[in-house]
Automatic annotation (TrEMBL):
InterPro entries: HAD-like_hydrolase_sf, HAD-like_sf, HAD_sf, PGP-like_dom2. One of its GO terms (cellular component) is cytosol. Gene3D superfamilies: HAD superfamily/HAD-like, Putative phosphatase, domain 2. It holds the Pfam family HAD. This is Phosphoglycolate phosphatase-like HAD superfamily hydrolase. It comes from Prauserella rugosa. Keywords: Hydrolase.
Length: 249
């Protein structure tokens, strides 16, 4: 089951990054790559499912590296509910309402070490455009990052979000397509950064450079074995992280 985004992403939720030539398109995962908000997703789904379907959540699908469409479809099916487009849309809208009402979100988690510094360093380099490939809904992606001040250097207009497909490589392809449309030319290099083998596989499927960051549930060896071109322990060494991200461009 695939569908286009059903959640309206309005102009007041984007960063306002202007069109410019793109030599390198850097696509970030969010959860356990830039921020750690472990536990919030399950809590939001529990509340949203009860509100929309009147069902108490008793089985939660695995989150890491998966898209919102995949998670929502599996969750509804596991609770004996047909995941129709209208119901998926309603659940997503309730998820957005629940998540964005959670404030202050920064007290429920943390920005991962070095994330702000690497984002800022890359933003200061000519020809580099940064966006997202994330399983999150777009509004929730923005809310998570803005809560830690990590949103200002990202072009949310061209992100590949979890509403696009249950198949993560489709999110990378969508981001590349949107980047080419906005910035006038296909990026010369695409770099995908994430903490799971799903992130790595999505990058490889689209011919992108895969940078693994071992800040999630998978260690350096697992990320290397999945095919990552480069693996970092974390983002705390700005120079090393930037060199890894741009080293193949």
């Amino acid at each position: 089951m695939e569908m286009s985004t059903l959640v309206e992403f309005t102009s007041d939720t984007v960063s306002g990054v202007t069109s410019r030539a793109t030599d390198v398109l850097v696509l970030w995962d969010i959860d356990l790559t830039l921020v750690d908000l472990s536990g919030t997703g399950g809590a939001w789904y529990r509340q949203a499912l009860q509100t929309v379907a009147g069902v108490t959540l008793d089985r939660m699908p695995s989150f890491p590296g998966r898209t919102e469409l995949a998670i929502t479809t599996e969750l509804l099916t596991a609770h004996g509910i047909e995941p129709t487009p209208d119901l998926v849309d309603a659940l997503w809208r309730e998820l957005v309402a629940v998540a964005t009402a959670t404030s202050p979100l920064h007290e429920m988690g943390t920005a991962l070490p070095g994330a702000a510094e690497v984002l800022a360093d890359l933003a200061g380099r000519g020809g580099v455009v940064q966006s997202l490939v994330t399983g999150n809904l777009p509004e929730i992606a923005h809310h998570k990052l803005a809560s830690f001040g990590l949103h200002t250097h990202l072009d949310f207009d061209i992100g590949g979000y979890g509403t696009v497909s249950a198949h993560r490589p489709d999110l990378v392809a969508k981001a590349v397509e949107l980047a080419a449309g906005k910035h006038g030319t296909a990026p010369g290099e695409v770099v995908v950064i994430g903490d799971t083998p799903h992130d790595v596989a999505a990058a490889l499927a689209c011919g992108a450079t895969a940078v693994g960051v071992a800040t999630g549930r998978h260690d350096r060896a697992a990320l290397a074995e999945s095919g990552a071109h480069v693996v970092l322990s974390d983002l705390s060494d700005t120079a090393a992280a930037v060199a890894a991200i741009l080293g193949r461009s």
